[in-house]
Amino acid sequence: MKKIKKILASPVTTAAAFVLAAGLLLFSSIGGARAALTYFSEDYAANIQLHEIGVTLVENGHEASGTDGLLQGLLGEGESLKLGTAYREELSVYNSGVINEYVRVNIHKYWLDENGQKLPTLSPELIELNLVNQDSWILDQDASTEERMVLYYNRLLNSQTETPLFADSLTISDKVASRVSETRETSGIYTTITTVYEYDGARFCIEAKVDGVQEHNAQDAIWSSWGRRVTVSDGVLSLN
Length: 240
Fold this sequence. Notes:
Blueprint: E1 13-23, E2 29-30, E3 55-59, E4 62-63, E5 87-95, E6 101-112, E7 127-131, E8 137-139, E9 148-153, E10 167-172, E11 180-187, E12 190-197, E13 203-214, H1 218-226, E14 230-233, E15 236-239
Antiparallel strand pairs: 1-13, 2-12, 3-4, 3-5, 5-10, 6-9, 6-13, 7-10, 8-9, 11-12, 14-15
């Protein structure tokens, strides 16, 4: 698996931030017709610290690449994104460094309007990233919100090895289509009803930030770097 850019920094942690974004290029509709959906992929940004420590997000069996972008192959040729349909989005973490590490993933889900501003009227919960292998990945309930999920891999990840998947599919809930408003205009005997969907002109975004911490003195290193108290015993991590 090819390496990605590394930048010297702190000797304790490493972080890689990836933006997974799919756009919904939409328009207001008249007479209740549902808006059309299209999809695009955005580039991601990666920041890897220290040459000994490295983490890589793996998507559908391939290293997330700044050249190819993310969500590649989400849709077939000529296919439109459909609400309520689960699309393959298999995500895991690969230890691309030379030392063993403990890793976590921060996932942020949100909506942006056509001006790139956060759209609070649409819930992040409508962006459904299906989590799997919860016997291997711990969801930190205390640190998680409607917009943010924090996952810890509960085993030591050896160098040049990969975790089990932490997610396997992505769905935009069909409940999005129920978020509508209507206006009526009457002229003579005719009444025009205009239906506007709240997702018109919006796009959904998912950000996944992957961090790694050294094996040596891991409990203190995790507390110092991530601000989270954990217990590590015989290579198994648990949250306090």
